[in-house]
Predict the 3D structure of the following.
Amino acid sequence: MAQILIIEDEKRISDFVSKGLAIEGFTTQTAATGVEGLGLALSGNFELVILDLGLPDMDGFVVLKKIRRVDEHLPVIILTARTSGADTVAGLTSGADDYVPKPFRFPELVARVRLRLKSAVRESESAPNPDDELLRHGDLTLDPVRHLVTIGEEIVDLSAREFDLAEMFMRYPGQALTREQLLNNVWGYDYDTASNVVDVYVRYLRNKLGASRFLTVRGVGYRLVEEKHYQPEG
Ligand code: CA
């Protein structure tokens, strides 16, 4: 799996990103300053860089320019609270491959990471991506690329949040997922952790996809029942 470098001085955010990417199977390393980040980025050990613009010692754009002077191809995704259009343009013209404004939702970031890694692979040789494959649970199928959920032959109408939550469960079948993990991955790190939104949305999924698929893990959160133990109701 790809090794990803996160250059970000705000620990809360670098922790959030690196934990999330670890769940997705990536190996990460973080750097809290531009100097440290630049050294690592040019070490040749990383396949992708996530770069914050507001760093304590130098501007992220400077880091990016220095990377580009040496390495034209290393995918760089800029992560920043600056949301002005001028900055987006500056980021893309200075050699960034993508630009994710803060606050961001994790699935959005990981989708961009995968996309950048995939196009980097495509440049060398084309390989099928297992993450594009259909996720299945009994008669339930989720197509991450077409954003489509079906039970048997029937299409189930899910909101974007319901879809992201269902995808999260289906990527980790049988695994207890904490409310915090679900909240971080589906709603984003700056969402109020005291909120009961996860419980509310699990209730929606139970109604739409079948109550017996989603088990409550007392004091922790929820898990998708193992397929072999799943008994469709009715
Ligand atoms: Ca910063």
